[in-house]
Amino acid sequence: MISALTPDLVENQTASAKEIEVRKASMADIPQLLELINGYAAKGIMLPRTEFEMSENMRDFMVAFDGNKLAGCGAMHFYSPTMGEVRSLAVAESHKTNGIGRLIVDSLIYEAKMYGLDAVFAFTYVPGFFARVGFHEVERGELPLKAWKDCLRCPKFHACDEIAVVRELRPHRRPQRQELPPVLGVDDGFVILLPTVLRG
Ligand SMILES: CC(C)(COP(=O)(O)OP(=O)(O)OC[C@H]1O[C@@H](n2cnc3c(N)ncnc32)[C@H](O)[C@@H]1OP(=O)(O)O)[C@@H](O)C(=O)NCCC(=O)NCCS
């Protein structure tokens, strides 16, 4: 039952090297979340978040704590009755390569299954990590149009080098590929195009 999805259900998971608690985030975690996410955003590898956005989306977030220190975080954002996005996934530099990223993704996938999603996707610069946790690369056009809304405020909108990855949760119900026009939407009379994808 979805109403039974409480922090208790996903906490007390253990990363390989240390005792790490993974649980749903709470408002008290916002300062440490902003520090972690915006630290990576300053290096151009994540989108920056504001306190307002964090509050608005706090129910999406899982956090991993090493004692009182935030070791990592990730969010599961729902886009449709069948699709969700893993976003704001980050592990502190001091805690990388200890299995914490995997723990967080596993928790988000657990939640996605509880809610009955068919598939979960992400836009990422680290497809190698996502491959290790069960995702595979797809063409961006296969993802729901709404998933592109963050692109509008991304500094790399005209030179997008993120890779789209998907993990099917119920492969027999894999969503049909959608052929989408290269238009994101119309805003204030302006046509908004999909970001320009860099091909290596
Ligand atoms: C990507 C990130 C979340 C990985 O977290 P992590 O805790 O270091 O990863 P884990 O230790 O759980 O690694 C799980 C597996 O992925 C592999 N892996 C980890 N980082 C990887 C990378 N950058 N490239 C390829 N494989 C990677 C690990 O070797 C491990 O493999 P295994 O299955 O053989 O054990 C972390 O490096 C990070 O926060 N990066 C900066 C922010 C970022 O890029 N976020 C992603 C936004 S979409």
Summarize this structure briefly.
With about 200 residues, the protein is an alpha+beta fold. It has helices at about 5-10, 30-40, 50-55, 100-115, 125-130, and strands spanning about 20-25, 60-65, 70-80, 85-90, 120-125, 135, 165-170, 185, 190-195.
Please describe what this structure looks like.
With 200 residues, this protein is of the alpha+beta class. The chain is built from five helices and nine strands; from the N terminus they run H-E-H-H-E-E-E-H-E-H-E-E-E-E. It has a seven-stranded mixed β-sheet with strand order 1-2-3-4-5-7-6, sandwiched between helices. A hairpin with a 2-residue loop joins strand 2 and strand 3 (69-78). The longest helix has 15 residues, at 100-114. The structure holds coenzyme A.
